[in-house]
Automatic annotation (TrEMBL), chain A:
Belongs to the adaptor complexes large subunit family. Component of the adaptor protein complex 4 (AP-4). Adaptor protein complexes are vesicle coat components involved both in vesicle formation and cargo selection. They control the vesicular transport of proteins in different trafficking pathways. AP-4 forms a non clathrin-associated coat on vesicles departing the trans-Golgi network (TGN) and may be involved in the targeting of proteins from the trans-Golgi network (TGN) to the endosomal-lysosomal system. The gene is AP4E1. It comes from Balaenoptera musculus. Pfam families: Adaptin_N, AP4E_app_platf. This is AP-4 complex subunit epsilon. It is a peripheral membrane protein. Keywords: Golgi apparatus, Membrane, Protein transport, Transport. GO terms for biological process: intracellular protein transport; vesicle-mediated transport. The keyword Protein transport applies. Its main location: membrane.
From TrEMBL, chain B:
Belongs to the adaptor complexes small subunit family. This is AP complex subunit sigma. Adaptor protein complex 4 (AP-4) is a heterotetramer composed of two large adaptins (epsilon-type subunit AP4E1 and beta-type subunit AP4B1), a medium adaptin (mu-type subunit AP4M1) and a small adaptin (sigma-type AP4S1). CDD domains: AP4_sigma. It is a peripheral membrane protein. Keywords: Membrane, Protein transport, Transport.
């Protein structure tokens, strides 16, 4: 009973305390106890996977347990672990297959049967695991073909639960490396499902079809009639599932029909969640495959009017970006915009119709930017319309702000401006501060028409105005303040830390005393003071240069919060005076207004700029998503003519003659469509590139040094290259060996190893390890543990007598690593029997115990076919751990400033009971730096690259070792603890 | 993964509810009423799987009692559908012809059974004899 409770509710902190007890229970004689113990461990794994790492071997034992229940329980753990990292458990495939074979073959006790089907849920679980294991892996998949075939055959019984198994089987068959016979059988199964009169089966069939279609779209053709029937099914759930399926097979040819179906469904459904979901999909499809401008705008109009205010804000943003940035073809752009303006113009003409706020916002933006395209309609008319909107009560003040912005843009083009004046009059007295601000802006701009025209040029929405993000105009002021003795500005996080460390100094007083033997607490404060005063002297000197970053380190004890406060006030005061030109004008003229208003307005104008930036940024990232769809597009196009046939069937069936027109048009323009899409993507990519560069430079100015930006990283790398010894700098890029005509490959390898040694004597490095080879090349890799990063070197040795062309080595991006290619990696030619090195520096982005880095090399032999060879390398946390050389005092300070700590007692074996030997082992294996040893206590420090320090304090009592980790990173201590335990057990 | 397990009668009264993912108490009632509404509005020839927000509902009706299970989209709907039946069979076995009243007055036992079968959102045991074994031991203890 207690074990059941454990597996239901359990706090993370108590795991170390009860873990040994539960481990004992794994050996219990009663099967139910063992089963519960496994489940309790599963719970532990769910809440804190890194704390049960050392008992993975016990899970394996549970998997081989003689009792079915215990085995089944362990499957849950495996499913979870395999989901996270399937490659580590490939060796277990055999056992899973055997288990499934036994289950399917009816070898289990009879009481596990459910309606004479042997343990159906167990089968499903196993199938799921196999599916995960066999994904994209031919060798593993081959192991399971037999058993899958068997289970497909066995599950012929006419019962619901067998259908569930079949469904899972089909799922697995399609996710593993394909085998045609099995695929055929699975397809037949799906056919049975879809055609079944039972509605639940139909649903299941559709779901399977949706999944399968991603791999094999031809299957949809076989069932096209059924799909069409399902589309008109009375049950909305079936309908929705069918739409989901259609969404997957959409391409440039069938888009009009599919989107129409989706819109129909959209008009019927009422539930908010469905609307949001569906609207997003339609917008995505419309952007991707739109056959022509008119259709695109109309569809988007429908989306906006139905989706209204609940839809995702990205959709209108994307739409506007598309309009603004346009395509390569300028006339196409103009047409699109013109059409948009016209349609909105007419939409606004219609009386007594309420549009959602978002839609109105989009409309007003488009009209504001592009109504000059209308030509014959003068801007006055547009302004009149917008004014009418403004005065209606049904719209929110946010929308009103959009509209006023549009009016402001239009005003310079207008000739007479009665309405504008009326508008100004009305809204300068508005209660809403935001609107009032906008109105005042308009008013002052209006007074100075020439300036206004310069400020608001026509059709320049894409070009960014230069915003001085670094606030460099403040530099002088700050320097002056500093020279008068004001404290330098500290960024928010530093202030926070200060506060924390101050608090901690107070509350940890007794603890500090226990350290007094090391003598640091006594010396701490004078050191702090001298350090602080030193820096304050410095700060005035460096103030001028460093005001951009406004960050000086080490000022912890002297300048407290009170020093910072007045500074901030003076700064904000300064900002209001020194705003960039346009805002300054406005604010200078508004000086008579109260100060609070002024501050607010400043915030507003700033936030407006911010918003613009955000809009750009968001559009940037969405571009990323659309990139991946290029592949999809290619796939879909190959099938296009089949689908065209299909959609014609659909048309004749539902008698929609209107779409036939569209269809023929789309088939005419299909070829041009494709190019048009490609252009669009190219354009997208290019744009993104530009923006990223812009963003990087911006960020570097801000010195935010977020790990996202690449620029600081590049700097770092160049730095690290500079700092490496000259020996390394000489030939760190590549090692050329003169062609050795007689030398065998063995000899070559030796020479390689020697060159390797020569090059890396300055740093520790691992042994050469072969990662993959074939008849022409062999690839080996080794790690160099440099101080700043982990340098992975792949040596490619050409065994053949001919030279290899366009050899290229690529490393797949991994989620936990940041990989940077050292220059000179893509070498066009590898001469015969020579070796070349490829270097990558790797940094860890978030801690973990083991990760996998995979990549491939491709090359061409004598202008013939190109060959690709895949390989992978395991990296462990230890590769990123470096000693942190600090003094005992620094250790004490750091110790107090870290919040995350982990304590654990570890048993030591007899041989290592002495402290020094343990320390030595830790120092060697984990590359920890021994800071100090006091009696039976030891202090160790290390850092996880790039800069995550972790401190370890430990104490020996008899044969127990009390480990206490502290770090600024929350997960690092857990991982280190695990490594420590491994070292202890190993030695 | 199973997110929640609900037993409701036709009047919309919740008889049993169990959540495998944290949901705030006041949100639970809201969720339950919405779930029940969507289940009750469906006829018997309609599909027993409903998409609701970001998860799926699988329901089965036994006389006046609905059993609704909410799962995320990685779960096999049909397997859960049959699992519900398995659960009812176990109840039937234990109470011998289970009725709504049995569940109302022996809620603790129903909970024990459910806990044996589902843990942390996973189906852990479907063997009828094994599910009931701990419960029968408990009964024996309370008798003696």
């Amino acid at each position: 009973m207690a074990l059941t409770i454990v597996s239901q509710i359990f706090p993370r902190e108590m795991i170390p305390a009860v873990l040994p007890l539960i481990e004992d229970k794994l050996q219990h004689s009663k099967e139910i106890i063992r089963r519960k113990a496994v489940l309790a461990l599963y719970k532990f794994y769910l809440i804190a996977p890194n704390q049960v790492q050392h008992i993975h071997i016990k899970f394996r034992k549970a998997l081989c347990d003689r009792d079915v229940g215990v085995m089944a329980a362990s499957l849950h753990i495996y499913l979870k672990m395999i989901k996270e990292n399937s490659s580590a458990y490939k060796d277990l495939t055999g056992s899973f297959v055997t288990i499934l074979k036994q289950v399917v073959g009816g070898k289990l006790p009879v009481d596990f049967n459910y309606h004479s089907v042997p343990a159906p849920w167990l089968q499903i679980q196993l199938l799921r695991i196999l599916g995960l294991l066999g994904k994209d892996d031919q060798r593993t998949s081959e192991l399971m073909y037999d058993v899958l075939d068997e289970s497909l055959r066995r599950a012929e019984l006419n019962h619901n639960v067998t259908y569930a198994i079949l469904f899972e089987c089909v799922h697995t068959v399609y996710s593993i490396y394909p085998k045609s016979e099995l695929l055929e059988k699975a397809a037949k199964c799906i056919g049975k499902f879809v055609l079944s009169p039972k509605i639940n089966l139909k649903y299941l069939g559709l779901k399977a079809l949706t999944y399968v279609i991603q791999q094999d779209p031809t299957l949809a053709l076989q069932h096209q009639m059924t799909i069409i029937e399902c589309l008109d099914h009375p049950d909305p759930i079936i309908k929705r599932e069918t739409l989901e399926l259609l969404y997957r097979i959409t391409n440039a040819q069938n888009i009009t029909v599919i989107v129409q179906k989706m819109l129909e469904y959209l008009h019927q459904s009422k539930e908010e969640y469905i609307i949001v979901n569906l609207v997003g999909k339609i917008a995505e499809l419309a952007e991707k495959y739109a056959p022509d401008n008119a259709w695109f705008i109309q569809t988007m109009n429908a989306v906006f009017s139905v989706g209204g205010d609940v839809m995702h804000p990205d959709i209108p943003n994307n739409f506007l970006r598309l309009l603004a940035e346009g395509f390569d073809d300028e006339t196409e752009n103009q047409q699109l915009r013109l059409y948009a303006v016209q349609s909105y113009f007419t939409l606004l003409d219609v009386e007594n119709v309420f549009y959602p706020q978002r839609f109105l916002q989009v409309m007003s933006w488009v009209l504001g930017e592009y109504s000059y395209l209308l030509g014959k309609e003068t801007p006055e008319e547009v302004i009149t319309k917008l004014y009418k909107l403004l005065t209606s009560d049904s719209i929110s003040s946010e929308t009103k702000a959009w509209i006023i912005a549009a009016v402001t843009k239009l005003t310079p083009q207008a000739h007479s401006s009665n309405i504008v004046e009326r508008l100004i009059q009305e809204f300068t007295t508005s209660l809403d501060t935001c609107l009032r601000q906008h109105a005042f802006e308009l008013k002052h701009l209006h007074e100075n028409v020439k300036f206004m025209k310069g400020l608001l040029p026509v059709d320049k929405s894409c070009e960014d105005m230069v915003v001085d993000a670094s606030l460099s105009f403040l530099d002088g002021f700050v320097a002056e303040e500093l020279s008068q003795g004001a404290a330098p500005y500290k960024p928010h996080h530093q202030r926070q830390e200060e506060k924390l460390s101050q608090e901690k100094v107070l509350s940890f007083e007794p603890y500090g005393l226990s350290f007094s033997s090391s003598g640091f607490s006594g010396r701490q404060s004078p050191a702090g003071i001298s350090l602080g005063s030193d820096i304050s002297g410095n700060s005035t000197d460096t103030g001028l240069k460093e005001t951009n970053s406004l960050k000086l380190e080490g000022i912890k004890k002297l300048w407290g919060k009170e020093g910072y406060l007045p500074k901030k006030e003076s700064k904000t005061g300064d900002e209001t005076e020194a705003l960039p030109v346009p805002q300054e004008n406005i604010i200078m003229e508004n000086v008579d207004q109260i100060i609070t208003k002024k501050d607010q307005s400043q915030v507003l104008t700033q936030s407006k700029q911010e918003k613009e930036k955000q809009l750009l940024a968001s559009s940037l990232f969405v571009g990323l998503g659309s990139e991946s769809t290029i592949n999809l597009l290619g796939k879909a196009d190959t099938l296009s003519h089949k689908f065209r046939r299909k959609s014609k069937v659909k048309e004749t069936k539902s008698g929609q003659t209107t779409t036939a027109q569209n269809m023929t048009r789309s088939s005419f323009s299909s070829s041009s469509n494709v190019t048009y899409e490609e252009d669009y993507y190219l354009d997208n990519l290019q744009d993104r590139g530009d923006k990223e560069v812009k963003k990087f430079s911006l960020n570097s100015e801000l010195l935010d040094s977020e790990s996202l930006t690449e620029l600081p990283l590049v700097e770092k790398i160049s730095n690290c290259r500079l700092s490496t010894p000259s020996l390394f700098a000489d030939n760190n890029m590549e090692v050329f060996h003169p062609p050795q005509s007689t030398a065998a490959s063995l000899a070559n390898e030796i020479s390689l190893a020697s060159s390797l040694l020569e090059e890396t004597t300055e740093h520790m490095h691992s042994d050469l390890m072969e990662v993959c080879d074939n008849e022409t090349i062999s690839v080996s890799s080794y790690k160099i543990w440099k101080d700043e990063c982990l340098l992975m070197v792949w040596s490619v040795f050409n065994k053949s007598a001919s030279e290899l062309k366009s050899a290229n080595l690529e490393i797949a991006p991994a989620e936990n690593f940041k990989i940077t290619e050292q220059p000179g990696c893509c070498l066009p030619v590898i001469e015969a029997e020579s070796t070349k090195n490829f270097q990558y520096s790797v940094q860890m982005e978030k801690p973990f115990t083991e990760g996998n880095l995979s990549g491939f090399i491709n090359y061409q032999v004598m202008d013939t076919h190109s060959v690709q060879l895949e390989f992978s390398v395991n990296l462990s946390l230890l590769d990123f751990i470096r000693p942190l050389k600090i003094s005992t005092e620094d250790f004490g300070k750091l110790w107090l400033s870290f919040a995350n700590d982990v304590k654990q007692n570890v048993k030591m074996s007899e041989s290592q009971a002495a402290l020094p030997s343990t320390l030595k082992a830790l120092q060697q294996e984990l590359r920890l730096h021994v800071v100090d040893i006091i009696g039976n206590e030891g202090l160790l420090a290390c850092q996880l690259l790039p800069s995550n320090p972790c401190l370890l304090h430990f104490r020996v009592h008899g044969d127990m070792l009390a480990l206490w980790f502290r770090s600024s990173c929350s997960t690092l201590p857990d991982y280190l603890l695990y490594q420590c335990q491994k070292v202890m057990e190993g030695s | 993964m199973i997110k929640f397990f609900l037993m409701v009668n036709k009047q919309g009264q919740t008889r049993l509810s169990k959540y495998y993912e944290h949901v705030e108490i006041n949100k639970r009632t809201l969720l339950e009423t919405e779930v029940i509404k969507s289940c009750l509005s469906r006829s018997s020839e309609q599909c027993s799987f409903i998409e609701y927000k970001d998860f799926k509902l699988i329901y089965r009706q036994y006389a006046a009692l609905f059993i609704v299970v909410g799962v995320n989209d990685t779960e096999n709907e049909m397997a859960i559908y049959e699992f519900i039946h398995n659960f009812v069979e176990v109840l039937d076995d234990y109470f011998s012809r289970v009725s709504e009243l049995d569940i109302m007055f022996n809620l603790d036992k129903v909970h024990i059974i459910l806990d044996e079968m589902v843990l942390n959102g996973c189906i852990v045991e479907t063997n009828r004899a094994r599910i009931l074994a701990p419960l029968l031991i408990l009964d024996k203890m309370s008798d003696s």
